[in-house]
Amino acid sequence: MSFASGFKPPTPGSSEPGTRSKTTMENLEKQLICPVCLEMFSKPVVILPCQHNLCRGCANDVLQATNPLWQPRGSSSSGRFRCPSCRHEVVLDRHGVFGLQRNLLVENIIDIYRQQESSRSVDMKQHQQQLMCEEHGEEKINIYCLSCQTPTCSMCKVFGQHRDCEVAPLSSIYTRQKVELSDGIAVLVASNDQVQAAISQMEEICRRCTCNSPRQIRFLQEQTLVNETCKV
């Protein structure tokens, strides 16, 4: 199937933007599915003479399954296989599937699709994690009360218990506190390194003391013996 053929627009009866967007993305995703592995096309994507697309790896698998003894660049006969979508016979030259043209358009569309899906996933997570004000149920917590040291909403600042307090955007406070926390962690890590170095130094001193103890004992014993001999 070519990329353009078979594409269905969103259902006309769907009036909600979210539903139309979801339907469009689902229809788009169907056009980006490889008929062999049934997964989204993986790079590089090759375009067959019949204008259908395959992952290069899948095209090579189909070729090897059809021509188990055929080797690229080393065979006098042409490699042949039939398109999994329309059964059109594909005749390859000595380069095998590497001689097929890459479909850069499909590859670019896949990149854009994945970026959009990733962005939508992040937006959904952020929406799900958005906290709502307990006092004003429909208001999002979007500011931070500096006086009370607590997150709150705009309605609380205008009409509620924080109307006489100093506030700041929650995002800026989050960024600032994140930096402060990172700096604090860095200080703790540096302090931990110093503590570990001191511990290692003390352990080395203890080890040396342990090794030297018998020598010191013998030295003291000898000194005591010498002093007693001198007295005699």
TrEMBL record:
Report the residue ranges that make up the RING-type domain in this protein.
34-87
Q: In the UniProt record, does the keyword Transferase occur?
A: no
User: What range does the record give for the signal peptide?
Assistant: none
Q: Which GO terms describe its cellular component?
A: cytoplasm; microtubule; nucleoplasm
Under which name does UniProt file this protein? Tripartite motif-containing protein 54
Segments of skewed composition (Polar residues): 13-22
* Domain B box-type, chain residue ranges per copy: 128-170
Function recorded in the entry: May bind and stabilize microtubules during myotubes formation.
- Compartments where located: Cytoplasm
Membrane keyword on record = no
Entry's Gene Ontology molecular function annotations: ubiquitin protein ligase activity; zinc ion binding
Keywords from the named record:
Coiled coil, Cytoplasm, Metal-binding, Microtubule, Zinc, Zinc-finger
Question: Per the record, which residues fall in region Disordered?
Answer: 1-22
Bilayer-spanning residue ranges: none
